[in-house]
């Protein structure tokens, strides 16, 4: 079952960096329509799947298409509006749409699973996707100018770099997903994959520096502001996505909520992110400084993760929801403004690739965040359970309370309290580790300078 999510995540992240460069070559409209069609094919295949293997394969197809939908949308808006203030307002509308879908999607999925069939979780994408394809085909009329024929540009594509990029990402994500579950972190498989990743990155740097059409231009890393911003965005992805995966686990195990209720308790984060994204987008014209929002977001996110350290078995529902809301507010201030800042700090010829690069790094952060949180929770929980009596440990090992949380609620009250407290302490350890990580993001945000259009308007 885990591969249903993992297949999508692997494909989504691996192909994320490619859409920016290919949009420069083939055109934004064509690439967006291609991504939409690939996503629709994946959705149809998932809905019609007759086996887990088929479902996983088409989930990967979905991920390949989904990788282009958000990043190309942001690039399309960027090309339409040269003024950063106007661009911010319209990109905000796109983020609001994603935020609303983040609320409605899981709720609709739950309704389909409970009252119809899980297949409609995928079939529902078909009418929506077709409608989007028709809208973009008819109304997006920004001309695409080619200085060379398509055949000549395609011949200049660094296909070797494409393969190395995909391979390096997979060699990072596979051990992050397998480590501590399918294989031990010190196993030969995990260590070998990380070593191969390191070798591929070295080869990628060498190849991209000599490519006519590099997938990830290496000189972007020499841009001080871009380097700082993608690092902040990476850390935000680590923290927000990691917490988004594991805070519901806290609700379920420590607070004893249902799966549905744990998801609903995470909704304040989505609402907070929608609010802060929307407000910062419309206030940028008055503030005239995206750095303020990035720094405010990093400070707010640091505060929220620090407050999570206070969570235990006795924390009230009001505090839980407030802490989650603050987390969402912080994330919303950071993500969009990091994208806008990177666009504003790069030359016009690099804006498309830079936008795709920022989204790609955030996706890597998302994957790393889940793996880091899983490793910390599992290791801390194992350590906490080892401190209990031998009789309690024997019961917990037999029932495998780390992997099977449902058995916790079938335990006698005394044993149940011990496990719940062990989980609570594990989450406290997790948030204690995550707080300085996002705190580093706050510190780095203080060194970002304005180098683009907003700096020229001073």
From TrEMBL:
Organism: Mortierella hygrophila
Location of the protein in the cell: Endomembrane system
Any Pfam family hit: MFS_1
Name of the protein described by the UniProt record: Major facilitator superfamily (MFS) profile domain-containing protein
Main location: membrane
Alphabetical list of SUPFAM superfamilies matching this protein: MFS general substrate transporter
GO cellular component: endomembrane system; plasma membrane
Bilayer disposition of the protein: Multi-pass membrane protein
